[in-house]
Structures are given as structure tokens and as C-alpha cells.
TrEMBL record:
GO terms for biological process: acetate metabolic process. This is Probable butyrate kinase. Belongs to the acetokinase family. Its EC number is 2.7.2.7. SUPFAM superfamilies: Actin-like ATPase domain. CDD domains: ASKHA_NBD_BK (cd24011). Pfam families: Acetate_kinase. It is an enzyme of class 2 (transferase). InterPro entries: Aliphatic_acid_kin_short-chain (IPR000890), Aliphatic_acid_kinase_CS (IPR023865), ATPase_NBD (IPR043129), Butyrate_kin (IPR011245). It is found in: Cytoplasm.
Amino acid sequence: MWKKERMKKAYKVLVINPGATSTKIALYEDEKVLLSDNIRHATEDLSAYKEVIEQLPYRLQLILDRLSKGKIAMSSIDAVVGRGGLLKPLQGGTYRVNAKMLQDLKQALRGEHASNLGALLAYHMALPLKKEAYIVDPVSVDELNPLARLSGWPELPRTSLSHVLNSKAVARKVAAAKGKKYEEMQLIVVHLGTGISVSAHQKGQIIDVNNAMEEGPFSIDRTGTLPARALVQLCYSGKYEEKDLLAKMSRSAGLFAYLGTKDLQEVERRIIDGDEEAELVFKSMLYQTAKEIGAMATVLSGQVEAIVFTGGMAHSDLVIQTLRERVSFIAPTVVYAGEMEMEALAFGALRVLRGEEEALVY
Ligand SMILES: Nc1ncnc2c1ncn2[C@@H]1O[C@H](COP(=O)(O)OP(=O)(O)OP(=O)(O)O)[C@@H](O)[C@H]1O
Ligand SMILES: CCCC(=O)O
């Protein structure tokens, strides 16, 4: 038995997670982190690119620079895994990157989003190494209850785009801490990143969630649900091209549109300095988030075992305290600040490398 363990191959997996304001990278050897880095992108650097896809060479070079600075032997890498983007609706799991997936991402099939770069970055890193590239639980995983799909306009059904990877990883941690299986729990997971996803988890499925690209609370750089009639009028005003409007909705709206920054810590400093507008926008974003949590509590018929706060903004005591004041009556709250996406990506690729799971075909 001991001999068998000793013979087991250790796998090295490079993980790449492009977010709206950062590119996180990590190198895992099995479950162990050998290197971890968060490359922050200044708003001025990213605003030079009209479309997300145009950022590919810029982000690729930064990753290569960091790996070379960390003296990483590229030839030792067994696989590269990236965060999955706005693909077609899919079941959860680990997918091998293929030509069809890359094509859909390049065409921004379902819209512009930083995660669209995940598979592309993984592919371009893996190609010269002659290794496979993967994605895990992309944002387009769609497990909505049929009741949640109707919008009231048959041509415009609701669809699911959310922080699935982190929300499920965190939900599994909460379940494990309670000595239960994820599939047995009823949870609301509130991912507070640059985008905000409030998801209702039942029997291991996200049965409802605000589409984080276009519904629910406004977030750091995105609109939430918009007044539809006014939006239609704006579309026909001749003021904007379709592409510009879509980019504006998902990259330069939300808190950023009001305050000119995507850095919540700066907003908190402004509030301390007495900036009333900063306080209003901050409170409004959290008021709308709390309202969405209330809605998801009704999706679970009030049977909520915990409300879980996660994502970058969950590091902020002020954010958590403000939300707790409105939603603690629903269920106990738990905080898992930051995200576990890197771990979830690495483990998804490891399961395939070890033959514990088949890679799914896109
Ligand atoms: N310690 C902290 N206190 C307050 N705000 C924070 C803290 N850490 C991060 N944030 C804020 O959280 C927000 C999201 O940052 P994060 O790096 O998690 O985003 P991202 O990974 O780009 O987005 P997403 O999770 O949507 O993919 C930013 O506005 C950031 O300023
Ligand atoms: C589209 C879901 C993920 C995000 O908002 O970043």
C-alpha cells in the first residue's frame, strides 16, 4: 500500500483566473500551492481595450513575466486550467478546451466578460507545452428551475450567468463544516465581487440566481436590473451603438459610473472623509443586494440553512455589517471572504488528470 502511494504521480497544474480588475494565477502540485499571484490591472490599462478579447496578448505577457520571475520550469506543468466564460448553457463539471469553445469565446457569443479570456489564456499557455487546457464550472452553468426562466416575454427567457465556480466551492465548504453534503443543503450564496451573484442552492443545484450580467443589484462596474422602457428609448436615441451600450452595461456602469472608481476600499475611505454621495451609492448597492437575498429566501420557501457571503467585497466589515442588518432575520450568516476559485479550478483539473472524472466535451 505504502509502495503504491509512493509511486503515485504528482501533477502540476497552472491555474489562470481573469477577473474584471485582476488576473489571478497559481501553480498547484496536487493540492499544494507552489505559487500564487494576483496581478492587478489599473483601470487606465484596461480601458485602452474596447473589447475584452483584445486584452489577450496583454494579460498573456503579464502571466509569462510573473512565471519567469518565479523561476517556474514550464516543462514540469501537466495541464493548464482557466476560468470558464460566457459559453452556451451547460451542466457543471470540467471541460477540455476545444476549437468550438475558443470560437464562441472570441465571438463573445453571450456577451463581453473577463472570464471569456480564461480558456483562451489556458489554451495559449498549454499549446507550446503540448498539454491539455481545461475550464471548470463556467459562469454559464445553468440549473435554473423552469419556474425561474419565464420573464413574461416568450422571446426573452431568463438565463443563468453567475459566479458558479466560487459559489459552489464555498457552498461545499459550508456543508462540510456542518458535517453535511452540499446536495443536502438549502443555502443562499452571495458572491460580492466586481459583479454580484445571489444564488439559491437546493439539492446541489443553483435553482435560481440573478443573472450577474444584467439583473439584480448593481455592482462595482455593472448595472443591475434596468428600467426597461427607458432602456428601449435609450437604444433608439441614436446616442449609442449596440456594442458600446453592452460594454457600458457590463464594464463601466454600477458604482464606477457614479463614483469613478472600482476600488471599494477607496470608496470606504471617501465615506470616512464625509463624502455623502459615496455613502449613498455604497448603501444603495448593498440595499439592492439585501433585497435580492430576500427574493432568494422566497425561492427556498424560507427554508434557508445559511446565508453565505463571499467574494472580494466580503473582506469589508462595513459591507458585511450593512448586509447583516437587513438579512440576519432570514437565517444565520457565514463569511468566506475572497474566493476559492483557484482551488476549485485546480481540483477540477486534477480530478481529470487522475482519471477520477471524464473531461466533458463542449
Ligand atoms: N479588503 C477589502 N475591503 C474592501 N473591499 C475590498 C477588499 N478587497 C477587495 N475589495 C473590493 O472587492 C471588489 C471586487 O474585487 P475582486 O478582486 O474580488 O474582483 P474580481 O475578482 O475582479 O471580480 P469577480 O469576483 O466579480 O470576478 C473590488 O471593488 C475591491 O476593491
Ligand atoms: C457573469 C457572472 C460572473 C461575473 O459576474 O463576474
